[in-house]
């Protein structure tokens, strides 16, 4: 069964039972549009709860591909601890399938269908980047750029890393700047991502989707992502 049918049926059941619906984040294009052998988790936006969030993971099966459906109105401060919890739960399971992956479910508006963004190997750090650097002095941070996503009109590109200045970007010139900078670098150039915890999940997915369209050559995007306040 294609997942979009499964998702539709699941949301209808939730809606009829407890009037719960996940407003999925929207993207303009998804490279992945169909996944089989799945189970799903839901992070609902619920204003009646103290933290406005409810996690439903009852039907997760550790050996399947996990589809994490997160309401786009939730903030990273709310969802990142839950995502880390789910990652750790799958990683510590006694029944493992090394080929099973984790995906965020999105609404692909270009196809008017579901699309998926993989986050299987993303390591989330709810700590300042400099604390991570201090604790990992053995790692090489040369020839790296750090991008701080603070808001749509407030993106900071720090290159060279640890420089006292940073280039301020917005969504309209972000892609042009990243491409121009990376084109002038040697092989081994890397990008480190950092996100403001007050960004909504929709904003986070928008930025991640933008990065996925860059088509950068000889550039690696770190799987370590940092959340700052």
Number of helices: 5
Calculate the mean pLDDT score and round it. 88
The strand count comes to: 12
How many angstroms separate the termini? 41 Å
Radius of gyration: 18 Å
What percent of residues adopt helix (DSSP H or I)? 25-40%
Topology as H/E string? HEEEEHEEEHEEEHEHE
- Counting helices, strands and paired strands, the structural category is alpha/beta
The percent range for strand residues is 25-35%
Shape: globular
Low-confidence stretches: 1-6, 8-16
**How many structural units, i.e. domains?**
2
Give the biggest sheet. Answer: 6 strands, mixed
Question: If you had to describe this structure to a student in words, what would you say it looks like?
Answer:
This is Lipoprotein. This protein folds into two domains: 3-118, no CATH class; 123-228, no CATH class. The protein has helices spanning 3-18, 76-91, 129-135, 171-183, 201-212, and strands at 26-27, 38-45, 53-56, 65-70, 102-108, 113-118, 123-125, 144-151, 154-158, 167-169, 189-196, 219-228. With 229 residues, the protein is α/β, with parallel strands linked by helices.
